[in-house]
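Hi R.,

As promised on Friday, here is the backbone we talked about, encoded as C-alpha cells. Could you run it through your design pipeline when you get a chance and send me back a sequence?
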C-alpha cells in the first residue's frame, strides 16, 4: 500500500518474516560472525486502523488473546515499546488514536525471531500509515530497542535479518553483509514443542562464560571459524559441506550447554533418515532445530522427526535470487 493522507484514513499494514540462525548463535553475542536467513513462510502482520479522536492507542495481540490500551501496558511490554519507539522516531509526540492489530504465525520463544518480526511489522505498519519510507537499517535500529527489552543483551542479528529479509553475514558492530547462496538449500525446521526464551539461554551462556572465560572464548572462536567456512560453502553451492558444518556447530552448541534432550531426540532420527546436517537454531534448550536435506530425502526426514515427536515441521528453501520464487 502506498502511504499518504488516504492511507492514513483507511489504515495500513506491515509484515515481516521469521528467521533462523544457520550458524553461529551465542558466539555472535561475543563478537564472532553468524549467518541468518529469513523464513518468509512464517509471517508477522500488523494492521494500523484509525480510531475516533481521543480514543488513544489500543493493541490487539490476536494470537496472545490480549487487547489493551497503550498507556496501561507494563513498562516491559515489547509491543507497546515498539509502538512508542516508532511513533516518536517518526517525529510524533503523545499517543495516537489507533488500533494496532497483530497476528503472527511464528511460534513464540522458538528461536524463530517472533519478537523481532512482530516489532518489525508494527514499525513498518506505522511507517506506511504516516507516509514514511524506512530503510532496512532504520527498521533494524528501531527494532533493536525492543530486542534489548526482550533479550537483555542481544547481538542484533534477529532484527537485522528480519529487516533485510535476505541471507546475511552478521558481526556485531559492523554493517551486515547480505549474500547470495550459490544453489538451493532445502531446510526443514522442526519444533521441539518446548518454549525457551532467548533471554534465559543467553543469560546461562553468559554465566558460564564468566565462570570459565578462556574455555568459552575458545568455543566461540571455533564457532566463528566454521561460520566463515559456512558462508563459503553456501556461496559455492555445496549442501554437503554446509551439512557437515551444521553438525560441527551443533557439537559446539552442546559444549556451550544449550542443547537439550528434546533437541537431541529430533536430531538423531533426522540424521538416521538421511539429513546432510542438523542443529538447534537460536537460543536452544528447546525451540526449533534446522535440518539440511537433499530434496529426495525431505519426506523421509520429515516423517522421522514427526515420529520422534516434532510438533510442527516447516520446509523452507534458501534460493539464489534468480530462483527466489522457489523459496519459502
Ligand atoms: C538468537 O536468535 C540468537 C542468539 O545468538 C542471541 C543473539 O544473538 O542475540 C542466541
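Update: got your reply. Pasting your designed sequence below so it's all in one thread:
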Amino acid at each position: 500500500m502506498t502511504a499518504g493522507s488516504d492511507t492514513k484514513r483507511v489504515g495500513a499494514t506491515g509484515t515481516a518474516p521469521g528467521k533462523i540462525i544457520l550458524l553461529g548463535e551465542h558466539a555472535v553475542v561475543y563478537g564472532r560472525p553468524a549467518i541468518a536467513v529469513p523464513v518468509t513462510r512464517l509471517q508477522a502482520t500488523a494492521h494500523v486502523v484509525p480510531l475516533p479522536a481521543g480514543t488513544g492507542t489500543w493493541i490487539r495481540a490476536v494470537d496472545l488473546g490480549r487487547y489493551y490500551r497503550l498507556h496501561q501496558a507494563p513498562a516491559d511490554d515489547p509491543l507497546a515499546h515498539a509502538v512508542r519507539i516508532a511513533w516518536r522516531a517518526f517525529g510524533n509526540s503523545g499517543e495516537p488514536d489507533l488500533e494496532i492489530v497483530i497476528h503472527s504465525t511464528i511460534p513464540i520463544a522458538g528461536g524463530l525471531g517472533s519478537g523481532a518480526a512482530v516489532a518489525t511489522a508494527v514499525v513498518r505498519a506505522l511507517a506506511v500509515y504516516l507516509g514514511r519510507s524506512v530503510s532496512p537499517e532504520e527498521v533494524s535500529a528501531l527494532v533493536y530497542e525492543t530486542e534489548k527489552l526482550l533479550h537483555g543483551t542481544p547481538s542484533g542479528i534477529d532484527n537485522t535479518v528480519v529487516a533485510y529479509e535476505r541471507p546475511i553475514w552478521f558481526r556485531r558492530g559492523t554493517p551486515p553483509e547480505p549474500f547470495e547462496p550459490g544453489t538451493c538449500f532445502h531446510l526443514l525446521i522442526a519444533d521441539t514443542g518446548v518454549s525457551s526464551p532467548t533471554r534465559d539461554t543467553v543469560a546461562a551462556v553468559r554465566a558460564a562464560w564468566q565462570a570459565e572465560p578462556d574455555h568459552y572464548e575458545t568455543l566461540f572462536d571455533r564457532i566463528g571459524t566454521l561460520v566463515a567456512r559456512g558462508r563459503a560453502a553456501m556461496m559455492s553451492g555445496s549442501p554437503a559441506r554446509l551439512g557437515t558444518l551444521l553438525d560441527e556447530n551443533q557439537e559446539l552448541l552442546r559444549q556451550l550447554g544449550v542443547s537439550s534432550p528434546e533437541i537431541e531426540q529430533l536430531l538423531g532420527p533426522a540424521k538416521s533418515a538421511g539429513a546432510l546436517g542438523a542443529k538447534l537454531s537460536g537460543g536452544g534448550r528447546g525451540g526449533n532445530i534446522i535440518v539440511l536435506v537433499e530434496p529426495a530425502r525431505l519426506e523421509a526426514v520429515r516423517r522421522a522427526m514427526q515420529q520422534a515427536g516434532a510438533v510442527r515441521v516447516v520446509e523452507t528453501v534458501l534460493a539464489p535470487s534468480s530462483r527466489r520464487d522457489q523459496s519459502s
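One thing I noticed while checking it: Residues 21, 25-26, 28-29, 111, 151, 154-155, 157-158, 198, 202, 282-283 surround (R)-mevalonate (CB under 6 Å).

Thanks again,
M.
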